[in-house]
Amino acid sequence: MRLTLERSKGALYAIYNRALREDASLQGKVVIELTIAPNGSVTACHFVSSELKNPELEQKLLARFRSLQFAAEDVDTMITTYPIDFLPS
């Protein structure tokens, strides 16, 4: 699961960098809660916390998280949180 999340960082940072062009002060930590079905699909996700204060960016990030596909496993539905820091480079 962590591997899938780590691999998605490039796409998440690309979304952030596009928003950063419009607001150079945009930065902060977000914590996302994901509900992952046994087939690997994301069935729900929401922010536990966000320091970004940019609803448009937050919605784009949520859409990206919803599109993730994890490896199917013979387990119950899993709920996990994932923190990520967005800082200008």
TrEMBL record:
Primary subcellular site in the record, as a coarse category: membrane
Membrane-topology descriptor: Single-pass membrane protein
Superkingdom of the organism of origin: Bacteria
GO cellular component, one term: membrane
Location(s), subcellular: Membrane
Assigned keywords, A-Z: Membrane, Transmembrane, Transmembrane helix
NCBIfam families tied to this protein: myxo_SS_tail (NF033768), tonB_Cterm (TIGR01352)
Protein's name according to its UniProt entry: TonB family protein
